[in-house]
């Protein structure tokens, strides 16, 4: 079977998107003359091929339709409501296959076709009854779950110690005391994507000392998950990159399939695990897992609940970015996410649902400074705990209990166990969920210095030492042709300028580095980079030839370039 692919079938630029009207829009790809329908409702879109499910006829506007959401087939008059993608004539008959709509950062839009759409339907397995204790799901921390499936232990996304996103995120939950044994005692591990709250090198370092040959599975994303393996110095020798949408057989009863995200296919993945015919769906952080097409009635579904890691808008200050604007924006975004997750669960009807992957805290003392920072200290960065509210797993489950009471919800604490066999047999069985007694739930000690001292060493790395390497970095990043000027200022933790720190302008219209802001009208941002003040950085003259110093690869190779540690990584 061929792996699942994602193909862009129609691209519209920002101007064409602006011209889309509310309701139905008929579009043709000028390159292959294939036709599509885009339904616009405020700022959201649905799309499908202009092809009738009956015998492939073409749709036109239905002149009898009063609310502007129905199209009519020119062959035998079937009718499709494009706002719901349901055929209304014949009534209660078919659903139209949808295309994934990706809104681009530049305001353009792409229609993407996944092929096949439902790869988990291939090679179906008979569903066998699960015995008590046969399938046990244990929550460890954040996005880390341990699945005992018969005799096999499968672990997801082990972030079990250390920070994520430099010193930004720290574990909220204290993992069970035996987490090291559980990590090293697993039979296989899935890592969903490269973000450091899922791919945690401090956690994998523990694993590498005992089980460097642990089979680790990742999706075949265009941005390799383990791009930093060699530089991390963590020794792992059995990393397997698997194609999307293909069952990977573990044993007679157990298999899994990795699927891509519709919004970030280059980076994000999700997974379906199947044991004795029962499916466990983990959508992790995907914004639109598998383009929105997911299996219904799975035994267990788990997903994130907290919202993205983006610094927007919390790290913005000035202009419209007042505290009240940010609070309102975040409140609405969180509410939207909660509603989206609740309606997804209602549609998919899993037997059990568990929100996870949102248990982090900005615990480092430097972020307490941010909480208390005053306007005069901070031009740009400002975070207030009250403003930056987060969703809670309990809130999401309460909403689901209201909207889909037939779904059993689970809000675990570290070490809590779900016995899937018992839960499926009788959702009211109190034995189906067990909670550990007298264990610490929340962390109160993170050993900051161990990790932050290591990170701070990077401040004096060669890569930052040469002023004329700055243009090199921006050329590599490739972001240009925008009427935007950014001033980058290195500061101390309190946002005061760092003595001897960099302070420069970048003009993104032509990637130049002027000493003064240009006189033309332009968008302007100031970006403050906090740098550990005790670390003095040597300033050097640039070598004539910009070759990497010591064994540090050039920046161009560290992001999207070759995979390091290639010998440890194989394609399956
Ligand atoms: S092909 Fe559309 S109604 Fe028959």
TrEMBL record:
Entry EC number(s): 1.14.18.2
GO cellular component, one term: cytoplasm
Residue span of region Disordered: 530-561
Highest rank taxon of the organism: Eukaryota
GO BP, sorted A to Z: CMP-N-acetylneuraminate metabolic process
Every Rieske domain range: 12-110
One function term, GO molecular function aspect: CMP-N-acetylneuraminate monooxygenase activity
EC primary class: oxidoreductase
Pathway noted in the entry: Amino-sugar metabolism; N-acetylneuraminate metabolism
UniProt catalytic activity: CMP-N-acetyl-beta-neuraminate + 2 Fe(II)-[cytochrome b5] + O2 + 2 H(+) = CMP-N-glycoloyl-beta-neuraminate + 2 Fe(III)-[cytochrome b5] + H2O
Keyword vocabulary terms for this entry: 2Fe-2S, Electron transport, Iron, Iron-sulfur, Metal-binding, Oxidoreductase, Transport
One Pfam family, short name: Rieske
UniProt-listed PANTHER family: CYTIDINE MONOPHOSPHATE-N-ACETYLNEURAMINIC ACID HYDROXYLASE (PTHR46522), INACTIVE CYTIDINE MONOPHOSPHATE-N-ACETYLNEURAMINIC ACID HYDROXYLASE (PTHR46522:SF1)
Family of this protein: Belongs to the CMP-Neu5Ac hydroxylase family.
Function: Sialic acids are components of carbohydrate chains of glycoconjugates and are involved in cell-cell recognition and cell-pathogen interactions. Catalyzes the conversion of CMP-N-acetylneuraminic acid (CMP-Neu5Ac) into its hydroxylated derivative CMP-N-glycolylneuraminic acid (CMP-Neu5Gc), a sialic acid abundantly expressed at the surface of many cells.
Name the UniProt record assigns to this protein: Cytidine monophosphate-N-acetylneuraminic acid hydroxylase
Source lineage: Eukaryota, Metazoa, Chordata, Craniata, Vertebrata
């Amino acid at each position: 079977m061929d792996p699942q692919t994602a193909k862009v079938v129609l691209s519209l630029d920002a101007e064409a998107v602006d011209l889309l009207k509310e309701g139905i829009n008929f579009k043709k790809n000028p390159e292959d003359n294939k036709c599509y329908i885009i339904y616009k409702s405020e700022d959201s879109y649905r799309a499908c091929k202009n092809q009738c499910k009956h015998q492939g006829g073409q749709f036109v506007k239905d002149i009898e339709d009063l609310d502007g959401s129905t199209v009519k087939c020119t062959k035998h008059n079937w009718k499709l409501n494009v706002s719901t993608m349901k055929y209304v004539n014949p009534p209660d008959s078919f659903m139209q296959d949808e295309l994934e709509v990706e809104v681009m950062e530049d305001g353009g839009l792409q229609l993407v076709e996944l092929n096949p759409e439902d790869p988990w339907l291939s090679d179906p397995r008979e569903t066998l009854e699960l015995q008590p204790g046969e399938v046990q799901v244990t929550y460890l921390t954040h996005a880390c779950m341990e699945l005992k499936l018969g005799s096999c232990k499968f672990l997801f996304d082990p972030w079990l110690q250390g920070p994520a996103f430099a010193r930004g995120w720290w574990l909220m939950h204290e993992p069970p005391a035996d987490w090291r044994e559980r990590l090293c005692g697993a039979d296989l591990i899935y890592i969903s994507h490269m973000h450091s709250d899922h791919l945690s090198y401090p956690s994998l370092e523990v694993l590498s000392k005992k089980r460097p040959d642990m089979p680790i599975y990742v999706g075949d994303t265009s941005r390799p998950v383990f791009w930093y393996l060699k530089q991390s110095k963590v020794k792992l020798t059995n990393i397997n990159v698997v194609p999307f949408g293909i069952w990977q057989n573990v044993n007679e009863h157990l298999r899994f399939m990795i699927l891509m995200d519709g919004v970030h296919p280059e980076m994000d993945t999700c997974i379906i695990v199947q044991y004795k015919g029962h499916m466990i769906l983990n959508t992790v952080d995907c914004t639109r897992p598998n383009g929105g097409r997911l299996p219904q009635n799975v035994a267990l579904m788990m997903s994130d609940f907290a919202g993205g890691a983006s610094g927007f808008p919390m790290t913005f200050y000035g202009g419209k970015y007042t505290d009240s604007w940010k609070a309102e924006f975040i409140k609405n975004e969180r509410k939207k996410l909660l509603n989206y997750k609740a309606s997804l669960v209602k549609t998919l009807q899993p037997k059990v649902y568990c929100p996870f992957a949102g248990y982090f805290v900005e615990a480092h003392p430097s972020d307490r400074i941010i909480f208390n920072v005053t306007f005069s200290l901070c031009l740009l960065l400002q975070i207030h705990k009250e403003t930056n509210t987060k969703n809670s797993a309990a809130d999401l489950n309460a909403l689901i209990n209201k909207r889909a009471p037939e779904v059993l919800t689970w809000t675990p604490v570290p070490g809590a166990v779900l016995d899937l066999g018992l839960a499926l047999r009788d959702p009211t069985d109190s034995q189906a969920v067990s909670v550990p007694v007298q264990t610490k739930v929340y962390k109160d000690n993170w050993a900051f210095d161990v990790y932050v001292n290591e990170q701070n060493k990077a401040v004096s790395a060669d890569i930052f030492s040469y002023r004329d390497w700055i243009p090199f970095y921006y050329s590599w990043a490739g972001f240009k042709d925008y009427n935007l000027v950014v001033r980058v200022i290195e500061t101390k933790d309190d946002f005061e300028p760092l003595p001897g720190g960099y302070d420069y302008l970048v003009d993104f219209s032509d990637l130049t580095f002027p000493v003064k802001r240009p006189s033309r009208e332009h968008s302007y941002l100031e970006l403050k980079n906090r740098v550990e003040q005790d670390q003095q950085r040597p300033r050097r003259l640039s070598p004539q030839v910009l070759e990497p110093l010591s064994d540090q690869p050039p920046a161009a190779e560290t992001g999207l370039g070759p995979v390091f540690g290639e010998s440890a990584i194989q394609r399956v």
